[in-house]
Design a protein that fits this description.
Structural class of chain C: alpha/beta
Oligomer: heterotrimer
Radius of gyration of chain A: 22 Å
CATH topology of chain A: MetI-like fold
Order of helices and strands of chain C: EEEHEEHEHHHEHEHEEHHHEE
Strand order of the largest sheet of chain C: 6-7-8-3-9-10-12-11
CATH architecture of the domain at 4-98 and 207-313 in chain C: 3-Layer(aba) Sandwich
Largest sheet of chain C: 8 strands, mixed
Structural class of chain A: mainly alpha
Radius of gyration of chain C: 20 Å
Shape of chain A: elongated
CATH superfamily of the domain at 4-98 and 207-313 in chain C: P-loop containing nucleotide triphosphate hydrolases
Helix content of chain C: 25-40%
Chains: A mainly alpha (290), B mainly alpha (334), C alpha/beta (318)
Distance between the termini of chain C: 23 Å
CATH architecture of chain A: Orthogonal Bundle
Order of helices and strands of chain A: HHHHHHHHHHH
Number of strands of chain A: 0
Helix content of chain A: over 70%
CATH superfamily of chain A: MetI-like
CATH class of the domain at 4-98 and 207-313 in chain C: Alpha Beta
Strand content of chain C: 15-25%
Number of domains of chain A: 1
């Protein structure tokens, strides 16, 4: 009986989420971009990195929908491989950093006391540190950074800000009546956390996962742009780095540098829409006056 | 109001952050096996250089104190820092790191400071108006589109928007110069000199301002809407106060202060984005210097720049945090 | 009989929902006379605060005014322009909201909050004079004038309440609408506030509309008492009369539920629950819980009428 209700509740929740216009559009945007690129990478006959794969500097044509670059590679193929890599790294980094965020936020917010003080202090320090500068230092020191290392490094700095906000959330939830009730009726701490606190934080969790993804992808592309990216794979920032090093602006190769920019912009827009939509669900703005 | 405890706590946090940054700055380059000099030489040899050999490496290592044990190096490092010596640049030798940084830093600070001031004030005004007009259902169709536009713009990384701006306003409509901070042929002190600075700084500033305004106005709008639901606004209206007063002294005043803390927090991220953006514009600031240092594997320069960036950002955040309680009587008591 | 200067006629205020509107105030007729303290008593959720807000048209979505008039010296407040109403608010009619813990602007000084009301109502005076007026106001409510230079976060709940009430006196209004001014205060401060209201009536001739769920509080200080139930007024009488001889069965139930020193028995509570205002009972709203209900009570709503001098009641028993 109770299980049925729970499942019904979850389905209803999903329904609310998908019905929200913003989330729907955002989700479509992101999924279409990702899966579209993924499919094309399987389908395309060209290689994204092999130099001299196809004739150089061809304009856009049915054979090469976005033309080819000065090193002899089909741009559309490059773009799709790049998109898939960037998204994968971004999501991986976000997942890692978010796990840290939520764990620390719950530890700090729920248990409080000494643990909270220590975690809060560490979080504050990491928030004020201009992480990109230190990221650049780390990346420079390690030379070229491969994708998996990139994800780990990004996660190392991205966890702080969401952690602070989530901790505030946990604190305010902890004070609410139903939590105290659950504790009084003898529920174990862990069960309270899993059954009561986390479900009530789901919209906020969604918002901050989105934030983490955007942050990770932005930092990643930025690092790659200045030349600290991977050497053995292509991603969006790497494409931009190639384009700028080979003076794509002055050579008028707009079909090379503009598509990665647009892809990033639209992915970010999609993720932002999802996060705004989730925010609306979590904070109903219609407060009845008195 | 302003308690001593708050002050102490904030300063302690500041010192901890700085110490951590300094230590990281010291340790990270030394984590890799082999000294930076060896790395650099390996790179050079790969590129075809054949000069020197082991004695050369030894000589340089001695110069940069790299042959000493870690604790000794740390000691030299700290004493160097305290006297403002950040060492020599490897690629621009014999220029010192501090010299190079001091030439580039004013450009970055000028750019960031002006852009942030403009975008912050405009963002607050815009966001407040948007939030204010939202109440009592006075929202119009094109408020929604402005909101969507702000959402779109605020999520674009600086460097991406920079590329688009450069393309539009330098290549398609050649209104602004491409890259650099100033026309090198001009004489300092003349009107032309200053106009040239402004022309070159316009695009980077525009880039930061547009992206940031989107962000600030969205968050201010949200804050204002929640302030509108507060009891003191209800009483303000029941007091028969004039609308303009309610807007400025009851609504915006209460939104201003949380936004300032936001500013302090986002300084780090904004600086990071701006740094990458400078490389797109070849703007002669810290970012561009860092970019070139990375390209040439100039470790001392990279280290020095990172340190200066961390120092400037954390100090600026500290200053803002110390000002904040003066504006909001509630903080400083916590 | 004194002349009423504020009259609500058939006032209706509803709340929009996704289904049927909630009829919080459904046809209320009320008149406040000069130099009197009129109390309004009722259970939680019976529409008291909505009524109070509605009298000065402080109604915001999802609430809306569905009908009726509020005549202030003959002019309908509900039909006035926003600017005309703004000038009346605070100057003629002052409002003290329920639970004023958050009703003071947290970021400006207390003195400024007294001053801005004065300025916006064209009451311009030099700075020193304003400071003296404000200090006197503070002393009147038993507060030290030095809080004027401080902020709301430095005051306790009771102090904030007193500040707001005294702020309301700055322009010598004709009417104070006090919505549960004592519910968040301790008994000592409660007494102080009630004495203040009584004093204002005596010395300055200000009328007070005192809203509370606490009959004890009301009994201390009001001249007349109105009983509100499910968005409707059921009885209005002189306060002594109403305690001596309550007319409406609901009133009787309320009064007999107050514990007293002389009766030894356990006070009786009224059986049942207050009705759902989206779908109120037909006829007399109280009939499902009324011990004296007749068949007509289910069919027809009783009219609020004056059966004797000063005795106004809505019940089919009369």
């Amino acid at each position: 009986m109770i299980m049925d209700n729970r499942i019904m509740g979850k389905l209803k929740g999903l329904k609310v989420i998908v019905e929200n216009k913003k989330i729907f559009i955002g989700l479509c945007l992101v999924l279409v971009i990702y899966f579209g690129s993924l499919i094309y990478t399987r389908v395309s006959p060209y290689s994204p990195r092999k130099i001299g794969d196809v004739p150089v500097n061809m304009p856009s044509s049915p054979e090469y929908p976005l033309g080819t670059d000065p090193m002899g590679r089909d741009i559309l193929t490059q773009l799709c491989y790049a998109t898939v890599s960037s998204i994968q790294v971004g999501v991986a980094a976000a997942m890692m950093s978010f796990t840290i965020s939520i764990l620390l936020a719950i530890l700090a917010g729920y248990y409080g006391g000494y643990v909270d003080s220590v975690i809060s202090m560490v979080t504050e320090v990491f928030i004020t540190l201009p992480s990109l500068a230190i990221l650049i230092l780390i990346a420079a020191v390690f030379g070229r950074v491969e994708l998996h290392m990139m994800a780990i490094i990004l996660a190392f700095f991205g966890w702080a800000f969401p952690c602070k906000i989530l901790r505030a959330q946990v604190l305010s939830l902890k004070e609410r009546g139903f939590i105290k009730l659950a504790l009084l009726s003898g529920t174990h701490n862990l069960e309270v956390i899993i059954r009561e606190i986390i479900p009530n934080m789901l919209p906020f969790i969604g918002v901050w996962i989105a934030f983490a993804i955007v942050g990770a992808m932005g930092a990643q592309a930025g690092l790659e742009l200045i030349g600290l990216g991977p050497q053995t794979s292509v991603s969006l920032g790497v494409m931009l780095n190639w384009a700028t090093t080979l003076a794509a602006f002055t050579r008028g190769l707009i079909n090379w540098w503009l598509p990665p920019c647009l892809v990033l912009m639209f992915i970010f827009l999609g993720v932002a829409l999802i996060s705004v939509g989730l925010d609306e669900i979590g904070n109903p703005k219609l407060k009845a006056r008195r | 109001m302003y308690t001593f405890k708050y002050l102490i706590r904030r300063i302690v946090m500041y010192l901890i952050t700085l110490s951590l940054a300094i230590s990281l700055n010291f340790l990270i380059p030394r984590l890799i096996p082999g000294s930076p000099i060896q790395q650099k030489f390996a790179e050079l040899i790969r590129m075809g250089e054949t000069m020197g050999g082991t004695e050369f490496i030894e000589k340089y290592e001695k110069l940069f104190n790299l042959d000493q044990p870690l604790q000794v190096q740390f000691f030299y490092y700290i004493s160097g820092l305290l006297s403002g010596n950040l060492g020599f640049s490897i690629s621009y030798f014999p220029s010192t790191v501090i010299d190079l940084i001091m030439k580039a830093l004013p450009w970055t600070i000028g750019l960031l400071f002006t852009s942030l001031m403009i975008s912050f004030t405009c963002g607050i005004l815009l966001g407040s108006l948007m939030g204010w007009l939202k109440r009592e259902g006075r929202e119009s169709k094109w408020m929604e589109s402005i909101w969507l536009l702000s959402l779109f713009l605020s999520n674009i990384p600086f460097y991406i928007f920079a590329m688009i701006l450069v393309f539009l306003l330098t290549f398609i409509f050649p209104l602004f110069p491409y890259g650099g901070g100033i026309d090198p042929l001009l004489v300092p002190g003349t009107i032309d000199y200053y106009i040239s600075i402004l022309r070159h700084a316009f695009l980077p500033a525009l880039c930061i301002v547009i992206v940031q305004i989107g962000g600030w106005s969205m968050s201010v709008r949200g804050l204002l809407v929640s302030v509108l639901g507060e009891d003191y606004l209800f009483l303000a209206k029941a007091k028969g106060l004039k609308e303009r007063r309610i807007f400025s002294r009851y609504a915006v005043r209460n939104v201003l202060l949380p936004q300032v803390t936001d500013l302090a927090i986002s300084l780090g991220t904004i600086t990071g984005g701006s740094i990458i953006m400078e490389s797109v514009f070849s703007y002669p600031g810290i970012g561009n210097l860092l970019f070139r240092a990375v390209k040439q594997l100039d470790y001392t320069l990279i280290q020095g720049i990172t340190l200066i960036i961390v120092f400037t950002v954390t100090t600026a955040a500290l200053i803002i945090d110390l000002f904040y309680p003066l504006l909001d009587p509630r903080i400083g008591e916590k | 009989m004194k002349q009423p200067f504020l009259e609500a006629q058939d006032l209706r205020i509803y709340y929009r929902t996704s289904t049927v509107p909630v009829k919080a105030v459904d046809g209320i007729n009320l008149a406040i006379e000069e130099k009197e303290i009129l109390g309004i008593a009722g259970e939680s959720g019976c529409g008291k605060s909505t009524l109070a807000n509605g009298l000065i048209r402080m109604i915001f979505p999802p609430a809306y005014i569905a009908g009726g008039r509020v005549l202030f010296h003959g002019r309908d407040l509900l039909k006035m322009s926003e600017e005309e109403l703004r000038q009346i608010r605070w100057k003629k009619i002052t409002f003290s909201p329920q639970a004023s813990m958050n009703s003071l602007n947290p970021v400006i000084k207390i003195l400024s909050q007294i001053q801005d009301a004065m300025e916006d109502h064209d009451f311009k005076r030099p700075k020193e004079e304003i400071k003296i007026i404000a200090s006197n106001l503070m002393k009147n409510v038993g507060l030290s004038p030095h809080i004027l230079d401080g902020y709301a976060c430095e005051l306790s709940g009771g102090m904030k309440q007193r500040v707001i009430i005294s702020m309301g006196m700055v322009l010598s209004p004709e009417l104070i609408i006090a919505d549960e001014p004592t519910s968040a205060l301790d008994v000592v401060v409660q007494r102080g506030v009630l004495e203040l209201l009584a004093e204002l009536k005596e010395r300055q001739g200000t009328s007070v509309l005192l809203i509370s769920h606490d009959l004890g509080i009301l009994a201390e200080v009001v001249d007349r008492l109105a009983i509100i139930y499910a968005g409707k007024i059921l009885e209005i009488q002189d306060v002594y009369e109403i305690f001596n001889e309550p007319l409406n069965p609901y009133t009787q139930g309320l009064i007999s539920s107050i514990p007293t020193f002389d009766k030894q028995e356990i006070p009786k509570s009224i059986p049942g629950l207050p009705p759902n205002l989206m779908n109120p009972p037909s006829g007399c709203r109280f009939h499902p819980r009324c011990p004296k209900a007749m068949s007509i009570c289910r069919e027809k709503e009783p009219e609020l009428k004056e059966i004797d001098s000063g005795k106004i009641v809505a019940c089919h028993l009369f």
